[in-house]
């Protein structure tokens, strides 16, 4: 089991969703609910997030179901026949409004709003949060890394340390959405038709008694490869590439070398000089090993002659911010606005819209408003699913999603796009939404005293 | 797609594993290789690790295969018929020696050693690392949290923010292995027969117009539940539980309350007093919301009257150390020891064994040795798989694995078991292994100059 088969994913939920659902059925509480998914506070090292994971999530929702074995399990756990029969017939029939994938967003802004009968909207909470959290987290981290590298390609080498198979596959998609050029993960490459990259590891060199022989044999099978030069001694490794180039003459098609340890900036400079001095100006230098946006930025500032970067763990687990304070909160039930007053965890009630204003081609400020307001700027949330089916207008084409993400990132003000410390982006709450929040708060307080 | 179906997992590999494999086949390099999996350096906030994930991994290895669509994909990617035919017949036939799950270990100690024909051992690298990394990471984090809570139960509430479905399911197993009492994740509970826990969320309260009605209706369906009291005002919430107790009299079966926001220590004290003053001494207090081993330790030091802790994100993503510096390195091929000399990344060549000495019932020191040495102490690595099949002696029973983990943790010296800063555990390298490393290093340097 790696993430279970798709038709069993109904049970990817917290026990309390099922107990609440059982109680809702018992109380005949089937009226429509609206839940809002949003990030309460950005991590210290983030000034924006990049929405990701929507299309894979909607695909899961369209197919969400349970297996017979799972029903037996629920019966063993003491759940009612009423609940089990409900789940047997379960088909998600709700509406989803969402930020299109690749849209940048900020704290407290609704990323997704689900409108569905209360038991349905409740049941899917865990899955919705889990999937959008993972993919938004990794797309956002990847965007920072891609921005730090400017025009230089980033390759995702994270499959070995990303948290599990699902994170490996969907994470690679999310990272490409964030601006990464290719992934080493073949399962992700196949499943999502992503560009893949990779050539050789140290083990290949190690398995040969001579590094030079290893280079030579590998290029016989893959002439236009990237040779890994740091298995024994980096500079000596580069010299062997030069020796091979001389030996092969016109047959030498190698495209570059990879450095994976040591002082990457200094080794890149020495390697570049050696290559150039020997007529190999056209060979690229790929650097990898413990890289992230901060290290890449430092290498770029020092003008290290590196042509592309392989980034693994730091990106794949979003190591400086491995989780987002994401929440999925009830904001309306049976036509009435809802919120909770738990300290430090404010909720904006009701269905909402976000209006984004642009000035001189750059985003200038956002306003979170009630869903039916008309405010200056561009409304961000779009209807993407009704009656449990994705709408034709919903963007599924991954290339277009990636283009949208790049356009969004280009429109971020430089102070938000940078990885340096700076001001945060301005997000307002509209007067009407603010009034409504006040009004619902009063109602809830009354419910707390009755 | 959530992690793909099991029979497609052969393709969960990095592209370079396949290019190397293609080259190995081209060069007829089928002799036996040994790869060692180990953690190079412990994260700053870890003084030990808890081995986890072995049995789920071995199950995957027994069943590893590819789908026809994947072969088409590989052909499209330019892979040779020779490679594709090899994968079509692929069946892992290697030997695995490993630390039993639940064994504590330290940096540089082999956790797993795989002996198999080189192409096989190479192909599985990405999967082996990914799976053991995830599960060891989360079991180790969970062990710290469980130790900080002493005898008080910890509940895993992390499903919503753990990185994807696979991490959610296998992670819950790993966290229970680390000492957590139960999980909220129903898919994990079902798949691995784990104890599950959970009652109600804020949304249930919010969906009712009155908090008191919500409590009352929920207890009609689930009389012996835990009521969540912080949706509106924590202390007022507790008072409503008391009101309900008075109203229901002998029918009141509620087992406890849950606090999920605010100053948990202070609110627990006030709640405890209110409950006790009203004859509800038997109600437990569960605390949750942003907890980890540091916060639990602080609450325990302040004698907060909390009976159990729900821990989510901090544990589920191992937030203070979201990745381990885990490596899977070629250490032997065709009967010869192998290593690489890349700076800062030392490798111990050849098959190895770890001997652990115990003094007064506590682990005192470990020695990493060659596999055939006989040294004082208990040898830790056991043969768990031969010819690609799990051995009958390999422990699959999850309860026994958990017992072993608890015994191991109890035998850790207090200075290693604590979450405070202190010395690290002593790990030596045997003289014979040290000599062998020297000898292989010389050989490899020769290979670097030839």
UniProtKB/TrEMBL annotation, chains A, B:
InterPro entries noted in UniProt: Aldolase_TIM, N/Namide_PRibTrfase, NAPRTase_C, NAPRTase_N, Nic_PRibTrfase-Fam, Nic_PRibTrfase_pncB, Nicotinate_pribotase-like_C
Organism this protein belongs to: Idiomarina seosinensis
Pathway it works in: Cofactor biosynthesis; NAD(+) biosynthesis; nicotinate D-ribonucleotide from nicotinate: step 1/1
Nicotinate phosphoribosyltransferase C-terminal domain span: 379-435
Keywords: Glycosyltransferase, Ligase, Phosphoprotein, Pyridine nucleotide biosynthesis, Transferase
Record's comment on post-translational modification: Transiently phosphorylated on a His residue during the reaction cycle. Phosphorylation strongly increases the affinity for substrates and increases the rate of nicotinate D-ribonucleotide production. Dephosphorylation regenerates the low-affinity form of the enzyme, leading to product release.
Catalytic activity: 5-phospho-alpha-D-ribose 1-diphosphate + nicotinate + ATP + H2O = nicotinate beta-D-ribonucleotide + ADP + phosphate + diphosphate
Positions of the Nicotinate phosphoribosyltransferase N-terminal domain: 11-131
GO CC terms: cytosol
GO molecular function: nicotinamide phosphoribosyltransferase activity; nicotinate phosphoribosyltransferase activity
NCBIfam families: NAPRTase_put, PRK09243.1-3, PRK12484.1
Species classification: Bacteria, Pseudomonadati, Pseudomonadota, Gammaproteobacteria, Alteromonadales
Keyword Repeat (UniProt): no
Biological role stated in the UniProt entry: Catalyzes the first step in the biosynthesis of NAD from nicotinic acid, the ATP-dependent synthesis of beta-nicotinate D-ribonucleotide from nicotinate and 5-phospho-D-ribose 1-phosphate.
Family the UniProt entry places it in: Belongs to the NAPRTase family.
Enzyme class: ligase
Protein name: Nicotinate phosphoribosyltransferase
Keyword flag Cell cycle: no
Top-level lineage group: Bacteria
Domain Nicotinate/nicotinamide phosphoribosyltransferase residue range list: 155-358
Enzyme Commission designation: 6.3.4.21
GO terms under biological process: NAD+ biosynthetic process via the salvage pathway
